[in-house]
C-alpha cells in the first residue's frame, strides 16, 4: 500500500495534518479508526506514514455509531477517527459519542478527529476549512453576523433578545449589528413557501435577439411564478425557471409568455420537481 502515498490529495493531507497527528500520538500507542467509505484512503495513508515514523499504531474500520468497534484494538491507546469530509457533522458526532461512552471502560487515553474537508469546523485536524466564514470570503461581517442572518432567514420577526440568547450577545449588540447589516447586505422581508403553492417546475433555455432578451427579462421580473432568471452563454443566452401547480400551468406560461414573445428564435423546456433550493419566493403584487 506504499503507492498510496504518491497520490497528490494524499500528499496534501499528510503535509497538512501529518506532523500535528504525530505530535498528538507522541510516544503513546495509537489507533487510527476510519469511517467507511470516505475515510479509508486517508486513514491508510496516515497509518502507512506513521508506521514509517516508527510509531506503534493500529488500524481498523468502524461504523459511525461505533457498534462494530473492535475494542481489543483500541484498549489503552490514543484514538484518531478519520473521515474524508465532515458535511453535516452527523458522522462526527455519532462516532465521537460512541467512543467517549467506551473511553473509561477501555482506558482510551484520548480521542480526536481528522478529516480532509471540514465544513462544520468540528475536526481537530483538517487541511480545508469549509465553514460559512470561509465560503463567503467577506471582511465586512463576521461569524456572529452570519449567525444573526441565518436566524432572521428562518424567522424575520425573531426578537433581538431571543437571537442574543442563541449566540451569546446582548440584545443591544444584536440590534446594532442588524442595523449595520441592513445598511450593507441584509434585507428582511416576507416570502411565500414554494412547497405549499406549487407542485412542478420548468427550466426554459431561450435564444433571443438583442432586443428580445432584455425585454423578456423585464417581463419575467414581474411574474410571480418566475423564481430564477440568468443570462447564459452557449447555444442559448437566457435561462428562466418557472413554478406551476400542474403541467397545464407550465404549458400556458410557455404559450403566452415565450412562444408569443417577439424576437425569440428558439427555446427548450425541461420539466421537473419543485426546487430543493430556494424553498421560498417573494410575493409580487
How would you describe this structure to a colleague?
This protein is α/β, with parallel strands linked by helices. The chain is built from 11 helices and 11 strands. The strands form 3 sheets. The chain has a 5-stranded parallel beta sheet with strand order 2-1-3-4-5, sandwiched between helices. A 4-stranded antiparallel beta sheet has the order 8-9-7-10. Strand 1, helix 2 and strand 2 form a beta-alpha-beta unit. It is elongated, with a radius of gyration of 26 Å. The model has no long low-confidence stretch (mean pLDDT 89).
What are the main properties of this structure?
285 residues; alpha/beta; Rossmann fold; Arc Repressor Mutant, subunit A; Alpha-Beta Plaits; five-stranded parallel sheet; 25% strand; elongated
Short description:
With 285 residues, the chain is α/β, with parallel strands linked by helices. Helix content is 41%, strand content 25%.
Could you tell me how far the N terminus lies from the C terminus, measured between alpha carbons in angstroms?
64 Å
Mean pLDDT: 89
Query: What integer value in Å does the Rg equal?
Result: 26 Å
Q: Which CATH first-tier class of the largest domain would you pick?
A: Alpha Beta
CATH fold node name of the largest domain: Rossmann fold
Largest sheet: 5 strands, parallel
Report the count of strand segments.
11
